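Researcher: Please predict.
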Amino acid sequence: MNTWTGKNRTTLVVAAAVIVAAYVFYYLKNDIAPSMYVAAWGYAIPLVLAALAGVIGERSGVVNIGIEGQMVLAAFAGFFGAAFSGSMVVGALAGIGTGLIAGGFLALTTVRWRMDQIIAGVVLNIIAAGLTSFYLKSGQILPGVIPNIEVPGLSAIPLIGEVFFSGRSVIALVAILAAVVVHVALFHTRWGLRTRAVGEYPSAADTAGINVERLRMVNVTVAGSLAGVAGIYLSMDASSSFERGIVAGRGFLALAIMIMGAWRPLRAFVMALFFGFVNAVASQLQQSGLGQGEGSGFFHGLVDMVTAPQILGTLPYVATLVVLAVAAGRVRAPAAVGQPYVKKDQ
């Protein structure tokens, strides 16, 4: 335990400082802080799920550039599956199943056929954009809503309970549970040990009797279900509609979050929360009309330009670039990521 604490001392100190600052802001600005935190978590939910899909894929040695396309296809299938069937359950299953199929397509092309992984992901994104645009029909509505859940005990915790466990949708709780389960499975189970082995040293894993191709195929396919859940959240929970551009680059942002989280599920969860909060701050600044009042002069014009809604809307992506630039030299990708594996006897 002491060894773990020593290795993670900086992380623990930063985490403690962030938690204290969050509570201080929560009590000092109780009129706006709760809504900002809830909005931050709402924005982070699909990022968490999509980043976990990326973590599983890259820990297995497969780059998943196609997360964006997987989310688009799942959002489309989930929304229209629910609209045409009249059942939210059918829609949710259709979205998750589509995520699995998209994950299977990526696994087949990259692992079995050994296609370039970046190109395979781009192809998946193009197919998703084309199919959903071609078959899109307007005027459809969902037959219901995804239920919210109150978690007994946890919902009574100040701030944390209000944001994460009080009146949150089922998918929000799934995102929290998925982050914990994937972390435990990845670092404390035989499956996790084998997954990390095929992502770091596939030849050694093969020598030890692990079927590298099969494990990669299964992992990338199953990871598609997490991207599928992220997709149905966007179309069936966050907006209750499907439109072109509904994913809006979240799949690519999730990849950045995965990298900044050092390919670790819980760190990726925290980074998703950070970007959710940045987005909430940008929205709050837009609503407050900062810099958009009356006045004249160079300084006022400069403030108006910097605080324009179009500029504030880019704040999460600017923050992504800044944090990526800082973290780029401090994290290491799995050694065999992006490299197709060929058995020596083939």
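Model: Residues 33-59 form the longest helix (27 residues).
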